[in-house]
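WP5 quarterly update. Target: DNA 3'-5' helicase. Source organism: Mitsuokella jalaludinii. Length: 862 aa.
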Amino acid sequence: MEFAELNPAQREAVENLSDNILLLAPAGTGKTNTLACRIANILAAERAEPEEILCLTFTNKACREMKERIVLRAGESGRRVLVRTFHGFCYDVIKTEAKRHSDLFADFTIFDEADCLAIIRDLLSEDWPVRSVQSLIALLKEARTAYGLQTDDAEADYKAALQRLLAEDPAAVRKLAVTEHYQFYRQLFEAWQAWGPTIAARYDARLHDVHGLDFTDLIVQAEALFAQADIAIKWARRFLYINIDEVQDTSELEYRILSRIFGSSRLLLCGDYFQTIYEWRGSHPEVVLRAYQRDWHPRRIVLTENYRSTQVLLSASFAWLKNRFPERVSALYPEGIHAVSAEHGLPIVLKGAMSFAEEAQWIYYKIQQLPVEDYGRVCILTRSNRYNKDLSLYFRNLGCHLAEGERLPFMLLDELKFFRRQEVKDALAFLRLVVNPHDAASFVRILNRFGRGIGPGTIRKISHESYRRAGIRITDYLDEDARRTGDPFAVLVEAFEAEDIVVFDVEATGVDPTRDEIIQIAGLRLGRDGKAKAEFKRLLKARRSVGDSYKVHKISDALLQREGQEPEEVLREFCAFAAGSVIVGHNVTYDLSILGSELARLGLPPLAYRRYYDTLDIFRRFYPNLPNHKLEYLGEFCHVSHRSTHDAMDDVCATAEILVYAIEKDIRPHARERKEFMEKWQDVFNELAGHISSIRREAVRMRPWQLLAKIVVDIGIDDYYRRRGEAQRIENLRDLFRQARAMDDSEARPFDALMRFLNYVTLSNTNLDAMTKRQQIPIVTVHQAKGAEFDYVFVAGLQEGTFPGLQAEKNDSLDEEARLFYVAITRPKRQLFLSWCQTQYGHYTHMSRFLLDLPREFVQNE
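Structure tokens (predicted):
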């Protein structure tokens, strides 16, 4: 391929496909284009298939931009390259491996911070600061994994992890044991040592019980999986080229996880040390880069030509960097950074205001004078959300005195991410219940706002331990069969008596339902005596090799060619064998998913079954405190005669035995209690249950954005906020609809597209994702603007105590604050405006020390 537009350093990064590479790329040096060209060159040179290339970056927005650039350069094959955020990649790994290597539900969903906070709040008996407890739980989870404490006794592991943390790094715990105003909270620090491990273990159990994982689980579960050598080797063999962008934001823990799959891949790590602004979340780039250079001996390539800024802006920002970090800049960028643009550019404007009001007024009138048509090309950056809110309020007051056509269109992106806003989460809660019928957190959210006649008291009663012992969950009140029969297990028991249960399991070439193929399928029809009445077991020929999955099921490609039958014939026969029955399996959603996918690929009709039950779910309900719920362990617990071996029929027989155990020991004995509990409250859920059933039926044919429109109108979410005069919330719902339509992959089945959309919104980690299409002036923190660029940028609040913040000097984090300032001043393409005020909240302030390092020849005072 020809890359005539690239400069020599960029071209070297694109054309060198043999060495590992450390690509140092300061702001504006064409990093994204360079990486896209490199991937296009790999494909053109046939050095790898698209699926053998992994590209990791920091935000969903960066993922989209990277994917678009790759497709632009490489064509349609570029769509098959795996471009993910780190959390998104961990999600893929866990989703792929959950069935075989854990007792996580294969249909797990990710719970965001707000939903997890609700679970924690419910577990706490006293009024502790919930966000601090959430942070402490995350710390314990990471420590448990880092220390290799992965026994079946989570509480004991957490106790050991906490003791070791307190012995080796007590400051890490103290730093998180804070009040809501981030002051050290001694009582919490001491109390956490007493009940912290118990709360963490109970939180895990509660989350997993409703088929959920949190963001920290994505990291620790991925690390636990990669700690198993065979899994790490399998993933290492999958990728021939691995590119990691924004490496300066990668934490040591994240790097440790990724390094397990580096294998013999060609590696490229790309970043800019001076844009490290996430030390508070564990990023220490010098540690990561030192490990990378020590272990992988990369060739260092430095991009030194800036394509974003004018001569003035680049000279000023680079001079500021040299003044602030002289030795490190000389070491990393000895040749400096040069502006490609021939435009000299306008000077940086600095305003020192007497008061906050004067500063805000100055910004407003300066923006009015700018030669812009699209106000989305202007941005206001600050250090804190509080400053943003104060500016927004002042701008609104200024606009009130102007004619409507003269008012500036501002958009405040506060500390709430778009997908975490109340009204957005309301609509998404309904979608989550479609994908995960066990999502009690989403159901409770819906009840709190739209459950007529269902208050917190009712929810507490249904969540009582007596209901749990009987096997009732609050989500059962939405189950059509449970509502019709008065018992969520009635259909299972009826089918058992009628000898109409089919227990089944599959083995496959891998564990990706959309790509892998079934190589063995087994099922048995269960008699009322608990023994097999009829059996079905077949091997299937496959187009794909079994690869490393041979180590699990011991079925070879040679065996399949010798004894396997044609997939169409086998699957048609199995569908006839199981037609109309109740399906049972252990973590059965995976088996149903890969069966459904393969039937669709073969052009066969879907399996017609009455409903399914999952023995993993049954045992989590009745035995929540078991060390684990893997089939092997449950087999020992129930003293089954068939051991689970990853032969499909052995696993089916083991599953059948534990099912009979549960029916006789737990399901039948509590039937009367369940009926009483269902009858007591069922009527109050009628209206909502009807809506949810309707939404679930439509989800298989409607696109996600169409389903959203139906929810907002049919449930009356828009009407709810209209009656309260909250027009902005209605506009946010419209924005959610627009985003869902823009993101929809029309080639995916509606339900698959819905799952992808929900994964995206849960893992979305920047507010800028929600504002890229609006012609409004964003007021954002520097952290929120990471990776973005604008024509005109205003950096406000540049006084001591605000930027840098008061805590920076106390916490010895001034260098991080300085790098944050550098990120801010490298966002503009045309002109930069800096401002500070001498009085704030009634106190006198001083100009930020960061302004003193700007060369005066590039600055114009106002």
